[in-house]
Amino acid sequence: MLHASVSGVGAASGGHIDRGRPWLRWLASSALLIAFAASSLAAVPATPPPALSQDPQEPPAAQVRALKRAGDAVVALRVTATEGATSAESLGVRRSGSGVVIGSDGLILTIGYLLLEAETIEIVTQDNRRLPARQVGYDTATGFGLVRPLVGLVGIEPVPLASGSGLRQGEPLLVAMGSGTGTEVAFTQFVGMRPFSGYWEYFIESALFTSPPVGNHSGAPLFNRDGELLGIGSLLVLEAAGTDTVLPGNMFVPVELLRPVLGELQATGKTRASSRPWLGVSSSEKNGRIQVVRVDRQGPALEAGLKPGDLVLEVDGREVNTLEAFYKQIWARSEPNADVELTVKQGEEVRKITIRAVDRLQTLRKPAGI
User: Fold this and answer.
1) CA dist 66 to 26, 50, 109, 227, 234, Å?
2) What confidence tier does 4 reach under pLDDT thresholds 50, 70, 90?
3) What span, in angstroms and rounded, lies between the C-alpha atoms of 222 and 62?
4) How many angstroms separate the CA atoms of 214 and 86, rounded?
5) What is the phi/psi pair of residue 62, to 5°?
6) What one-character-per-residue DSSP string does 66-129 give?
7) Which of 2, 26, 81, 241 could form a cystine bridge with 85, CB 3.0-4.6 A?
8) How far apart (Å, rounded) are the C-alpha atoms in residues 262 and 139?
9) How many CB atoms lie within 10 A of CB 258?
10) Angle at CA 114, nearest 5°, toward 332 and 330?
Protein backbone atom coordinates (compact mmCIF):
# COMPACT_ATOMS: atom_id res chain seq x y z
CA MET A 1 0.00 0.00 0.00
CA LEU A 2 1.31 3.45 -0.88
CA HIS A 3 0.47 6.94 0.31
CA ALA A 4 1.72 10.21 -1.13
CA SER A 5 2.16 13.83 -0.18
CA VAL A 6 3.72 16.91 -1.68
CA SER A 7 6.61 17.95 0.54
CA GLY A 8 7.69 21.56 0.92
CA VAL A 9 10.23 23.76 2.63
CA GLY A 10 8.40 23.46 5.92
CA ALA A 11 9.44 19.82 6.03
CA ALA A 12 12.70 21.09 7.47
CA SER A 13 10.97 21.01 10.83
CA GLY A 14 10.36 17.30 10.48
CA GLY A 15 6.98 17.09 8.77
CA HIS A 16 5.36 17.27 5.35
CA ILE A 17 3.51 20.18 3.80
CA ASP A 18 0.69 19.14 1.52
CA ARG A 19 -0.10 22.73 0.49
CA GLY A 20 -3.77 22.19 1.03
CA ARG A 21 -3.89 18.99 -0.99
CA PRO A 22 -5.34 15.89 0.69
CA TRP A 23 -3.23 12.80 1.09
CA LEU A 24 -3.70 10.36 -1.74
CA ARG A 25 -4.24 6.68 -0.99
CA TRP A 26 -3.07 4.51 -3.84
CA LEU A 27 -5.98 2.20 -4.59
CA ALA A 28 -4.46 0.95 -7.82
CA SER A 29 -0.85 0.68 -8.93
CA SER A 30 -1.49 2.80 -12.03
CA ALA A 31 -2.39 5.75 -9.80
CA LEU A 32 1.21 5.94 -8.59
CA LEU A 33 2.64 6.84 -11.98
CA ILE A 34 -0.19 9.28 -12.71
CA ALA A 35 0.20 11.02 -9.36
CA PHE A 36 3.98 11.13 -9.76
CA ALA A 37 3.57 13.30 -12.85
CA ALA A 38 0.69 15.39 -11.55
CA SER A 39 2.02 16.02 -8.05
CA SER A 40 5.53 16.79 -9.29
CA LEU A 41 4.05 19.49 -11.45
CA ALA A 42 1.94 20.85 -8.58
CA ALA A 43 4.88 20.88 -6.15
CA VAL A 44 7.32 22.68 -8.45
CA PRO A 45 5.49 24.54 -11.24
CA ALA A 46 8.70 25.58 -13.00
CA THR A 47 9.61 21.99 -13.80
CA PRO A 48 7.58 19.81 -16.17
CA PRO A 49 6.44 16.43 -14.83
CA PRO A 50 8.24 13.29 -15.96
CA ALA A 51 6.95 12.25 -19.34
CA LEU A 52 5.52 8.78 -19.77
CA SER A 53 7.88 6.69 -21.81
CA GLN A 54 7.14 6.55 -25.52
CA ASP A 55 9.67 3.79 -26.10
CA PRO A 56 7.77 0.70 -27.25
CA GLN A 57 10.28 -1.38 -25.29
CA GLU A 58 9.44 0.50 -22.07
CA PRO A 59 5.69 1.21 -22.04
CA PRO A 60 4.03 3.08 -19.17
CA ALA A 61 2.81 -0.24 -17.77
CA ALA A 62 6.42 -1.27 -17.15
CA GLN A 63 7.06 1.95 -15.26
CA VAL A 64 3.99 1.32 -13.14
CA ARG A 65 5.20 -2.16 -12.26
CA ALA A 66 8.68 -0.85 -11.46
CA LEU A 67 7.33 1.87 -9.19
CA LYS A 68 5.04 -0.58 -7.44
CA ARG A 69 7.99 -2.91 -6.86
CA ALA A 70 9.94 0.03 -5.42
CA GLY A 71 7.13 0.95 -3.04
CA ASP A 72 6.63 -2.65 -1.93
CA ALA A 73 10.35 -2.99 -1.09
CA VAL A 74 10.36 -0.15 1.49
CA VAL A 75 10.20 -1.02 5.19
CA ALA A 76 10.36 0.88 8.46
CA LEU A 77 13.16 0.26 10.94
CA ARG A 78 12.97 0.57 14.72
CA VAL A 79 16.29 0.44 16.58
CA THR A 80 17.13 0.45 20.28
CA ALA A 81 20.70 1.29 21.28
CA THR A 82 22.60 -0.83 23.76
CA GLU A 83 22.90 0.36 27.35
CA GLY A 84 25.62 2.96 27.76
CA ALA A 85 25.91 3.68 24.04
CA THR A 86 27.79 6.94 23.55
CA SER A 87 25.97 7.49 20.26
CA ALA A 88 22.73 7.85 22.25
CA GLU A 89 23.82 11.37 23.18
CA SER A 90 23.33 12.56 19.61
CA LEU A 91 21.10 9.90 18.07
CA GLY A 92 18.93 8.88 21.01
CA VAL A 93 18.35 5.45 22.51
CA ARG A 94 15.33 4.69 20.32
CA ARG A 95 15.66 5.46 16.63
CA SER A 96 13.36 5.12 13.67
CA GLY A 97 13.90 5.34 9.95
CA SER A 98 13.48 3.44 6.73
CA GLY A 99 15.22 0.83 4.64
CA VAL A 100 14.78 -0.83 1.27
CA VAL A 101 15.20 -4.43 0.17
CA ILE A 102 18.11 -4.80 -2.27
CA GLY A 103 18.78 -8.55 -2.04
CA SER A 104 16.78 -11.65 -2.94
CA ASP A 105 17.53 -12.98 0.57
CA GLY A 106 15.84 -9.97 2.18
CA LEU A 107 19.01 -7.87 2.57
CA ILE A 108 18.00 -4.32 3.49
CA LEU A 109 19.98 -1.15 2.83
CA THR A 110 19.65 1.80 5.20
CA ILE A 111 21.71 4.64 6.62
CA GLY A 112 24.35 3.40 9.02
CA TYR A 113 23.91 5.83 11.88
CA LEU A 114 20.57 4.23 12.73
CA LEU A 115 22.49 1.05 13.56
CA LEU A 116 25.25 2.52 15.71
CA GLU A 117 25.61 0.45 18.89
CA ALA A 118 22.24 -1.21 18.25
CA GLU A 119 20.94 -3.69 20.83
CA THR A 120 17.77 -4.60 18.92
CA ILE A 121 16.69 -4.00 15.33
CA GLU A 122 13.10 -4.44 14.24
CA ILE A 123 11.64 -4.33 10.74
CA VAL A 124 8.07 -3.05 10.42
CA THR A 125 6.39 -4.22 7.24
CA GLN A 126 3.63 -2.39 5.42
CA ASP A 127 1.00 -4.64 6.98
CA ASN A 128 2.43 -3.77 10.42
CA ARG A 129 4.24 -7.05 11.03
CA ARG A 130 7.24 -6.59 13.33
CA LEU A 131 10.17 -8.82 12.49
CA PRO A 132 13.47 -9.11 14.34
CA ALA A 133 16.58 -8.37 12.30
CA ARG A 134 20.34 -8.43 12.70
CA GLN A 135 22.99 -6.03 11.54
CA VAL A 136 24.99 -7.32 8.59
CA GLY A 137 27.41 -4.45 8.20
CA TYR A 138 28.18 -0.79 8.78
CA ASP A 139 30.53 1.18 6.56
CA THR A 140 31.75 4.39 8.18
CA ALA A 141 33.41 5.43 4.92
CA THR A 142 30.18 5.68 2.93
CA GLY A 143 27.66 5.77 5.78
CA PHE A 144 25.69 2.75 4.58
CA GLY A 145 24.24 0.11 6.86
CA LEU A 146 22.94 -3.36 6.03
CA VAL A 147 20.42 -5.43 7.97
CA ARG A 148 18.76 -8.76 7.33
CA PRO A 149 15.50 -10.01 8.84
CA LEU A 150 15.63 -13.16 10.95
CA VAL A 151 12.29 -14.13 9.42
CA GLY A 152 11.85 -14.28 5.65
CA LEU A 153 10.23 -11.37 3.81
CA VAL A 154 7.80 -13.17 1.52
CA GLY A 155 6.80 -11.69 -1.82
CA ILE A 156 9.12 -8.67 -1.81
CA GLU A 157 11.30 -8.17 -4.88
CA PRO A 158 14.64 -6.37 -4.45
CA VAL A 159 14.98 -3.02 -6.19
CA PRO A 160 17.65 -2.41 -8.83
CA LEU A 161 20.44 0.08 -8.15
CA ALA A 162 20.99 3.01 -10.51
CA SER A 163 23.59 5.71 -11.05
CA GLY A 164 22.70 9.33 -10.42
CA SER A 165 25.27 10.60 -12.92
CA GLY A 166 22.68 11.06 -15.65
CA LEU A 167 20.20 13.07 -13.57
CA ARG A 168 19.23 16.51 -14.82
CA GLN A 169 18.88 19.48 -12.52
CA GLY A 170 15.21 19.86 -11.58
CA GLU A 171 14.34 16.27 -12.45
CA PRO A 172 11.46 15.00 -10.26
CA LEU A 173 12.29 12.14 -7.91
CA LEU A 174 10.51 10.08 -5.25
CA VAL A 175 11.48 9.76 -1.60
CA ALA A 176 9.87 6.74 0.10
CA MET A 177 9.43 6.23 3.84
CA GLY A 178 8.39 3.00 5.52
CA SER A 179 5.50 2.70 7.95
CA GLY A 180 3.21 0.02 9.31
CA THR A 181 0.33 1.24 7.16
CA GLY A 182 2.06 1.47 3.81
CA THR A 183 4.87 3.32 2.10
CA GLU A 184 4.65 7.09 2.33
CA VAL A 185 5.93 8.97 -0.69
CA ALA A 186 7.10 12.57 -1.04
CA PHE A 187 8.08 14.28 -4.26
CA THR A 188 11.30 16.22 -4.59
CA GLN A 189 13.71 17.41 -7.26
CA PHE A 190 17.32 16.73 -8.10
CA VAL A 191 19.48 19.76 -7.29
CA GLY A 192 22.97 18.45 -7.93
CA MET A 193 25.77 16.03 -7.13
CA ARG A 194 28.99 17.14 -5.44
CA PRO A 195 31.45 16.17 -2.69
CA PHE A 196 30.19 16.36 0.88
CA SER A 197 32.07 16.88 4.14
CA GLY A 198 30.30 16.05 7.39
CA TYR A 199 31.23 17.60 10.71
CA TRP A 200 31.60 14.11 12.29
CA GLU A 201 34.81 13.09 10.43
CA TYR A 202 32.94 12.03 7.29
CA PHE A 203 33.58 12.74 3.63
CA ILE A 204 32.35 11.27 0.36
CA GLU A 205 33.41 12.30 -3.12
CA SER A 206 29.83 12.46 -4.41
CA ALA A 207 26.52 13.09 -2.70
CA LEU A 208 23.04 13.62 -4.14
CA PHE A 209 21.19 16.79 -3.12
CA THR A 210 17.46 17.30 -3.51
CA SER A 211 14.85 19.93 -2.64
CA PRO A 212 12.17 20.47 -1.28
CA PRO A 213 13.27 18.69 1.91
CA VAL A 214 11.72 15.63 3.51
CA GLY A 215 11.75 15.51 7.29
CA ASN A 216 11.64 11.74 7.81
CA HIS A 217 14.74 11.20 5.70
CA SER A 218 16.82 8.75 7.76
CA GLY A 219 17.42 5.70 5.58
CA ALA A 220 14.70 6.76 3.13
CA PRO A 221 15.31 5.46 -0.38
CA LEU A 222 15.42 7.90 -3.29
CA PHE A 223 13.93 6.56 -6.54
CA ASN A 224 13.88 7.75 -10.12
CA ARG A 225 10.72 7.53 -12.20
CA ASP A 226 11.64 3.99 -13.29
CA GLY A 227 11.60 2.74 -9.70
CA GLU A 228 15.40 2.40 -9.54
CA LEU A 229 17.23 3.15 -6.32
CA LEU A 230 19.48 6.21 -6.51
CA GLY A 231 20.43 6.88 -2.91
CA ILE A 232 19.72 6.55 0.80
CA GLY A 233 18.62 9.51 2.91
CA SER A 234 21.19 10.89 5.35
CA LEU A 235 20.67 14.53 6.27
CA LEU A 236 18.54 17.62 6.20
CA VAL A 237 20.63 20.48 4.78
CA LEU A 238 20.08 24.21 4.41
CA GLU A 239 22.38 24.64 1.40
CA ALA A 240 21.28 21.95 -1.03
CA ALA A 241 22.43 24.09 -3.97
CA GLY A 242 25.86 24.85 -2.47
CA THR A 243 27.36 27.19 0.08
CA ASP A 244 26.39 30.38 -1.76
CA THR A 245 22.62 29.77 -1.68
CA VAL A 246 20.19 29.01 1.11
CA LEU A 247 18.00 26.19 -0.21
CA PRO A 248 16.60 23.66 2.29
CA GLY A 249 16.85 20.09 1.08
CA ASN A 250 18.27 16.65 1.75
CA MET A 251 21.55 14.87 1.20
CA PHE A 252 21.39 11.28 -0.06
CA VAL A 253 24.32 8.86 -0.19
CA PRO A 254 24.40 7.55 -3.78
CA VAL A 255 24.14 3.78 -4.13
CA GLU A 256 26.89 3.73 -6.72
CA LEU A 257 29.24 4.06 -3.73
CA LEU A 258 27.83 0.76 -2.48
CA ARG A 259 28.58 -1.34 -5.55
CA PRO A 260 32.36 -1.69 -5.05
CA VAL A 261 32.08 -2.61 -1.34
CA LEU A 262 28.82 -4.57 -1.10
CA GLY A 263 30.45 -7.99 -1.18
CA GLU A 264 33.10 -7.02 1.34
CA LEU A 265 30.53 -5.41 3.63
CA GLN A 266 28.38 -8.54 3.64
CA ALA A 267 31.34 -10.84 4.18
CA THR A 268 33.13 -8.95 6.96
CA GLY A 269 30.59 -6.48 8.36
CA LYS A 270 32.81 -3.52 7.45
CA THR A 271 35.14 -2.31 4.72
CA ARG A 272 38.86 -1.66 4.62
CA ALA A 273 38.15 2.03 4.12
CA SER A 274 36.25 2.07 7.43
CA SER A 275 39.39 1.13 9.38
CA ARG A 276 40.96 4.56 9.38
CA PRO A 277 42.17 7.01 12.03
CA TRP A 278 39.45 8.63 14.14
CA LEU A 279 40.06 11.56 16.47
CA GLY A 280 36.63 11.99 18.00
CA VAL A 281 35.94 15.60 17.02
CA SER A 282 33.12 17.49 15.38
CA SER A 283 34.39 20.36 13.25
CA SER A 284 33.26 23.09 10.92
CA GLU A 285 34.82 25.41 8.37
CA LYS A 286 35.04 29.02 9.58
CA ASN A 287 36.71 31.79 7.60
CA GLY A 288 39.11 29.42 5.91
CA ARG A 289 39.95 27.60 9.14
CA ILE A 290 38.87 24.36 10.75
CA GLN A 291 37.17 25.01 14.07
CA VAL A 292 36.57 22.29 16.64
CA VAL A 293 32.92 22.40 17.67
CA ARG A 294 32.72 19.36 19.94
CA VAL A 295 35.12 16.80 21.39
CA ASP A 296 33.78 13.29 21.93
CA ARG A 297 34.10 12.23 25.56
CA GLN A 298 35.20 8.75 24.43
CA GLY A 299 37.57 9.94 21.72
CA PRO A 300 41.36 10.31 21.83
CA ALA A 301 41.27 14.04 21.05
CA LEU A 302 39.87 14.84 24.50
CA GLU A 303 42.68 13.03 26.27
CA ALA A 304 45.25 14.82 24.09
CA GLY A 305 43.92 18.22 25.16
CA LEU A 306 41.92 19.37 22.13
CA LYS A 307 39.04 21.68 23.12
CA PRO A 308 35.89 23.14 21.53
CA GLY A 309 36.75 26.45 19.91
CA ASP A 310 40.28 25.40 18.93
CA LEU A 311 41.33 26.24 15.38
CA VAL A 312 43.20 23.51 13.50
CA LEU A 313 45.86 25.15 11.34
CA GLU A 314 47.93 22.17 10.21
CA VAL A 315 47.98 18.38 10.16
CA ASP A 316 51.51 16.94 10.22
CA GLY A 317 52.88 20.35 9.27
CA ARG A 318 50.59 20.72 6.24
CA GLU A 319 48.09 23.56 6.20
CA VAL A 320 44.42 22.56 6.07
CA ASN A 321 41.59 25.01 5.47
CA THR A 322 38.72 22.71 4.45
CA LEU A 323 37.16 19.72 6.15
CA GLU A 324 38.00 17.64 3.10
CA ALA A 325 41.70 18.48 3.36
CA PHE A 326 41.62 17.97 7.15
CA TYR A 327 40.12 14.49 6.89
CA LYS A 328 42.19 13.31 3.94
CA GLN A 329 45.43 14.30 5.63
CA ILE A 330 44.43 12.30 8.72
CA TRP A 331 43.24 9.31 6.70
CA ALA A 332 46.44 9.16 4.64
CA ARG A 333 47.88 6.78 7.24
CA SER A 334 47.92 3.08 6.50
CA GLU A 335 46.73 2.08 9.98
CA PRO A 336 43.99 3.58 12.18
CA ASN A 337 46.05 3.49 15.38
CA ALA A 338 48.58 6.14 14.48
CA ASP A 339 49.86 9.44 15.82
CA VAL A 340 48.39 12.58 14.27
CA GLU A 341 50.12 15.91 14.91
CA LEU A 342 47.85 18.94 14.87
CA THR A 343 48.95 22.54 14.95
CA VAL A 344 46.13 24.33 16.74
CA LYS A 345 45.36 27.81 17.95
CA GLN A 346 43.92 27.80 21.46
CA GLY A 347 42.95 31.34 22.33
CA GLU A 348 46.00 33.41 21.45
CA GLU A 349 48.43 30.50 21.76
CA VAL A 350 49.54 28.31 18.85
CA ARG A 351 50.70 24.86 19.92
CA LYS A 352 51.22 21.36 18.58
CA ILE A 353 49.09 18.49 19.89
CA THR A 354 49.80 14.85 19.14
CA ILE A 355 46.74 12.61 19.16
CA ARG A 356 46.93 8.84 19.12
CA ALA A 357 44.09 8.07 16.71
CA VAL A 358 41.94 4.94 17.01
CA ASP A 359 39.66 2.81 14.87
CA ARG A 360 36.16 4.22 15.33
CA LEU A 361 34.55 0.80 15.01
CA GLN A 362 36.54 -0.44 18.01
CA THR A 363 35.07 2.28 20.24
CA LEU A 364 31.45 1.27 19.66
CA ARG A 365 29.60 -0.77 22.27
CA LYS A 366 28.45 -4.22 21.24
CA PRO A 367 25.10 -5.76 22.16
CA ALA A 368 25.08 -8.05 25.19
CA GLY A 369 26.46 -11.48 24.35
CA ILE A 370 28.54 -10.35 21.38
Assistant:
1) 15, 15, 18, 5, 24
2) very low
3) 19
4) 27
5) -70, -35
6) HHHHHHHTEEEEEEEEPTT-TTHHHH-SEEEEEEEE-STT--EEEEGGGGTTEEEEEEE-TT--
7) 81
8) 10
9) 20
10) 10
